[in-house]
Specification:
The protein is an alpha+beta fold. The chain has 13 helices and 24 strands. Helix 7 runs antiparallel to helix 13 and helix 10 crosses helix 11. It is elongated and about 75 Å long.
């Protein structure tokens, strides 16, 4: 492990740092065992209640053989430890885990230092090399091999300081993730409200006169029309051997994974030549304001073609060209991304392909049609929320990058705790 030379650092086996414990539910007094929650070991979220992971308990009724795990104890899944399935219990309450999971207590109170070092890339690679078996899900690591792994660690006080810093960044990231999730849930609620009642406050919804339509209840003054009626064209991109037209550089051609909800992501683009784009492939040549709709994978997901990609092309995507005096591009895209919009589009699928959306289905999809001013208000409200979500996702990405950098540099001694200045951890505005 490359680091600055530090004579105070020691190279120790995990057996010097961890002590195996094997306490079963059957070993506990009935009063203590009665309320223990069954925990699931996840790669990304650590030890969490089974009811959170699966929305129900999946353990057998008799858990007497299950192992008890207490706060701070470390657990790993021997069959997928090489994927990072090793965590310390962060809850303040004890729980129980599968009897096949080895459980350990720390020899010293390291402040959670081992929680991080045990999940570094270096140790994940060691688990991978030491795991044996014919196929991935049958591969496992022997306990003795795990405990024989050596790590280089600083003095105990520095371990605690490092753990504190990493935990602080981790908690900031988790808090940001909760904000993002809450904002996305709010967005779903807002979309349902806006496409049902129009651009009125939640508290005034009961004042809106509604009527029942093929798209569900909508304001009485709204209309409905099929997507085909609202658009000058609804067609599909290149579907026959698109790769035969690929060139190294040229005109971008978008595929399904370039289309996210209300956003075009220009990653891993492929290109057509100008000659092909203006010739054989001109029927699917895109214009600014065209609405791209995914056919397969996440059918119904849509976004609007921005000005910088006017003249681009698309592959196996439906594109709709709205008549702007009837329906704005962003309103149409937002509706297709709503729960109700996706439902209506997918209800017109034909054939046996359950996750495939064809042009005919998009054409037939009924669309609520408010006045243009209302459409603009609806899209503006959703855009405001999207800006907040984007800002929080950018913060999450920055925190994740910070965490990974600190994890490497602090664990190798390339950066010392007392040298750190972390403005990234200030409260987000």
């Amino acid at each position: 492990m490359a680091r600055r030379a530090e004579t105070s650092w020691k190279r120790l086996a995990l057996s010097d740092l961890l002590q195996e414990v094997d306490v079963r539910v059957r070993d506990l007094p009935e009063a203590e065992s009665r309320n223990l929650e069954v925990l699931s070991l996840t790669k990304n979220w650590g030890l969490i209640p089974q009811t959170e992971r699966f929305d129900k308990r999946v353990a057998t009724e008799d858990i007497s053989k299950y192992k008890v795990v207490r706060p701070g104890w470390i657990v790993y899944n021997p069959y997928v430890i090489w994927e990072g399935a090793i965590h310390g219990l962060r809850r303040i309450e004890p729980g129980v885990v599968s009897p096949v999971y080895p459980t350990f207590r720390r020899v010293e109170d390291d402040g959670g230092y081992l929680d991080f070092i045990l999940r570094t890339d270096k140790l994940i690679e060691a688990y991978n090399q030491l795991s044996s078996g014919a196929v991935n899900r049958r591969r496992s690591i022997k306990k003795d091999d795990f405990l024989a792994i050596e790590v280089e660690i600083p003095p105990l006080a520095e371990q605690r300081a490092i753990a504190h810093v990493l935990r602080t960044v981790q908690r900031a990231k988790e808090a940001t993730e909760k904000v993002i999730e809450a904002a996305k849930q709010l967005k779903q609620s807002l979309m349902k409200h806006l496409f049902t009642y129009g651009p009125v406050p939640f508290g005034e919804a009961d004042r809106v006169e509604l009527k029942e339509t093929e798209v569900g209840p909508i304001p009485a003054h709204w209309k409905t029309a099929s997507c085909e009626v609202l658009c000058d064209e609804v067609s599909v991109g290149v579907v026959v051997r698109p790769s035969s037209y690929y060139v190294t550089t040229g005109i971008p051609a978008f595929r399904s994974f370039n289309v996210r909800e209300d956003r075009l992501v220009p990653n891993d683009l492929v290109f057509f030549s100008s000659e092909s784009n203006d010739g054989k492939l001109s029927k699917s040549k895109l214009r600014t304001g065209d609405v791209l709709i995914v056919r397969t994978g996440y059918p119904g997901t849509s976004c609007v073609v921005p000005p910088e990609y006017d003249g681009a092309n698309c592959i196996d995507l439906v594109f709709a060209r709205p008549q702007q005096e009837k329906v704005t591009s962003h309103f149409l895209s937002r509706y297709f991304n709503s729960t109700e919009g996706k439902k209506r589009a997918l209800s017109h699928r034909t054939g046996l392909a359950q996750q495939h959306l064809n042009v005919g289905a998009v054409k037939q999809t009924p669309i609520p049609v408010p006045q243009i001013s209302e459409q603009q208000q609806i899209t503006a409200s959703l855009e405001t929320l999207d800006v907040k979500i984007d800002a929080e996702e950018s913060r999450r990405q920055s925190l994740d990058q910070l965490f990974q950098s600190l994890l490497h540099n602090l664990m190798t001694g390339q950066i010392r705790v007392h040298d750190l200045d972390l403005p990234e951890l200030k409260e987000s505005s």
